[in-house]
Amino acid sequence: MSILEPLISKLTRFNLRSFVVYILEETKSEIEDYQIDQLRFGFDGTGKLISPEYRSDEYAAFKKTVLNGQAPLGTPDLKLTGSFQDKIMARITQQFLEITSMDIKTPDLEAKYGEDILKLSDSTFIRYFKDVFLPYAKDELKLIFNIK
Questions:
Q1: What is the model's pTM?
Q2: Which residue in 14, 16, 29, 103 could disulfide with 84, CB within 3.0 to 4.6 Å?
Q3: Residue-level pLDDT, tens digit, the chain, 148 residues
């Protein structure tokens, strides 16, 4: 028996799609955190600043100074009470990753700012992938293939 036979046997039974879905499911709270962080800095899923900007310069200044907003001055971060962000949820299926918020304001916010507010931008997804997904996947693969 070759030393490679057990490894080859495990690899032939390995289902990559199921593995990826499993990792996404196991790290969905981190996906939600990355979505919230992206909004905190005022970016949507296209990587552009959320628009339209606030209509009132006074409100924009209030958000930036009193509420310690991280988004550029005038750019919405979609947070006042925190309810919208607190109710953000990632849903994982075999086909896709969907991010939504169960907050009552969600349809109004999407109508005003676009559906891309609840999508990860490419750069945000890459950060999640490098910082969270890959390390988690590496640890799981070590367990699956009994690698120390």
A1: 0.91
A2: 103
A3: 677 887 788 888 889 999 999 999 999 999 999 999 999 999 999 999 999 999 999 999 999 999 999 999 999 999 999 999 999 999 998 889 999 999 999 999 999 999 999 999 999 999 999 999 999 999 999 998 888 7
For the chain, what is the domain count?
1
Rounded Cα distance, 108 and 119, in Å: 16
Which range marks the domain in which residue 64 is found?
Answer: 12-143
| Cα–Cα distance for residue pair 101/84, rounded to 1 Å | 6
Structure tokens of 22? 């499993």
Does the N-terminal peptide bond of residue 52 adopt cis geometry, omega within 30 degrees of 0?
Answer: yes
CB atoms within 10 A of CB 128: 21
